[in-house]
Every structure is written in C-alpha cells, then in structure tokens.
C-alpha cells in the first residue's frame, strides 16, 4: 500500500495591522520555493511583543486578512488565536495545529530573518523548533544572525531554521499607518479591497 505523503503547511502569523502586499508576496515566494501545499494566515489576538501598543481590534484585522487572501487557492485563514485567551504565543498555536493535523503534516513557520534572529527570546522557542522548521525570509535585506542563535540552541535545533531568499519589498505596516495618519495614499501597498475597507472604517486616520 502506498504511503500517504505528508502535507507541507506554511504558517504566516502576525499582527497584520494592516496586512499588506509584502506579507502576500513573501508567503507566495515561500509557498513556491519549499513548496507548500497551503499557507495558513493566523492574525494574532494579543501579540506578545506589542502589548504596549494599541492595535486595531482583532476582528477587523481578521477581516482585512480575509479580504487580502481571497481568491488564492492555497491561502487559508484561521481565527484560532482570536478564540484563545491571553497573549498569542506561537508555541501554543503550533501545539493546536499539531493536535489538528496529527503527524500528517510538516509545518513551516514563516517569519523575517530579523525576527528569526531573536527566536531565543520567544516563548517556548525550543518547542517551536522541535515541531516545525522556521523559514527566515530575507525581506528588506535582513540576514539571519546564526552566531547569536548558536549560543542558545543546540545544532540539531539550529539546523531547523531555514534562511530563504524572498523579494525585498520595502513595505511595512508601520509606514502604512503613518501614511494614513498624514492623509497620504496607500495605493499599491495593500490589496485594493483592504484599502477600501480601511477607508470605509476610518482605520488609522
């Protein structure tokens, strides 16, 4: 009997405040290069590293993400972190995904090389590297700081951090929020449907 192939599942977590074309271009580049069967976009309810900053309500960020990925056959949306109380730790999300998928999937957690270089500061980081590979994308020219990471992780865990070159897209949610505050255009920075929703709801202005 032929063994069933495991699915390759990408995980694209983040505040998505707002989601922009850089997120989508990065996800698509990783999907093609790994390759991935699907990419799950998971907006954070309470981002642990942004507890001091006010963010748009989670339900609205979830809806913007839905608008952004609509129509892509391999991009799916999950509200699992919105349903969970407390800070949105990636390790808790991975535990839930492992329960859902069992051993039928290999997980690839997509993040920037700058964030991956600080993986040792993440909650339960060793568990994250045990259950998935962390794809460290070189967006905006960031490189992976393996020297620092080697001080905190054993070689067998360190090798589960996979640097991957993706298009350098100089777009950030911070810049988009600032542009909106100043009344500047965000055309071509976010999907059109997302821009329309932002203006309709008066977000960030």
How much of the sequence lies in strands comes to 15-25%
Tell me the helix content: 25-40%
CATH architecture: 3-Layer(aba) Sandwich
Distance between the termini: 59 Å
Q: Report the CATH C-level class.
A: Alpha Beta
Biggest sheet descriptor: 6 strands, parallel
What's the total number of strands?
Answer: 6
Taken from the alpha-carbon principal axes, the silhouette is globular
Number of individual domains: 1
Give, in spatial order, the strands making up the sheet with the most strands.
3-2-1-4-5-6
The CATH topology corresponds to: Rossmann fold
Mean pLDDT: 93
Based on CA atoms alone, the radius of gyration comes out at 17 Å
Summarize the structure in words.
39% of the residues lie in helices and 17% in strands. With 205 residues, the protein is an alpha/beta fold. The chain has a six-stranded parallel beta sheet with strand order 3-2-1-4-5-6, sandwiched between helices. The model has no long low-confidence stretch (mean pLDDT 93).
Summarize, please.
The protein has 205 residues and is an alpha/beta fold. 39% of the residues lie in helices and 17% in strands.
Features:
Rossmann fold, 205 residues, 10 helices, 6 strands, single chain, 39% helix, six-stranded parallel sheet, alpha/beta
